[in-house]
What does this fold into?
Amino acid sequence: MIAVIGAGKIGELVVSGLLRAGRPADQILVTARRPERGKELADRYGVRVVDNSTAVAEADILAVAVKPQDAGTLLDEVGPQVPAGKLIVSLCAGLPTSFFAARLPEGTPVVRVMTNTPALVDQAMTAISAGPHATGEHLAIAEEMFQPLGSTIRVPESQQDAVTALSGSGPAYFYLLVEAMIDAGILLGLPRQVAHDLIVQTAIGSAVMLRDSGEHPVKLREAVTSPAGTTISAIRELENHGVRAALLAALEAARDRAREIAAQSA
It folds into this structure.
């Protein structure tokens, strides 16, 4: 039995992924702060909505998907009820496993997970890290939970803030880039829908080539960049406007914000 505590956007991703992977709805419990949200999830997925104490008592695995700023209140409420051997899977961005260890019984295994919203189309990137008391078996359980949503990777917990900046927030960067390129297409005289279709399919094709070709992105870029051609002219302008430096600074800012969230919640 798996309980998803705090079924907001990320929690719902987990619920839907578990169901697509074949887990029966009667093996999934959900908690929600608002009764209307709980009813919505029960109607949509057929899962049972319970309170936090019932979830802790009945589930073998607790997937904690509340907002980071709410995690302390949650653990103050249910922490003393959690048996030391029960697996905690944290989806709380920025919160280290030590945050949970300080509020749960000694020896409680905690696995920290960072996934992203392409889980909605089974194309997520999920990074999984073990806390001090989590074993390889616990990591394997977490991987089994998230593999139906896309790809998984194990990383040391010290790298999770960077993962949050790179892939957790990453979809937003691509959407912003696509939005800007569609606007550029309109500026160049294309209808919005045509510009949208051109850029979206180009993004999909480029991503598949990156994944499947095994080539470094520099080589793939060079294959499109002819001497004195259109592409190199565009790339020169991107470099002149500091796009690469802006991305580096943006990801550092996201990483630093993840650290701030952890510090504020400690």
Remarks:
- The mean pLDDT is 93.
- The radius of gyration is 21 Å.
- Residues 182 and 235 are 17 Å apart (CA to CA).
- The first strand starts at residue 2 and ends at 5.
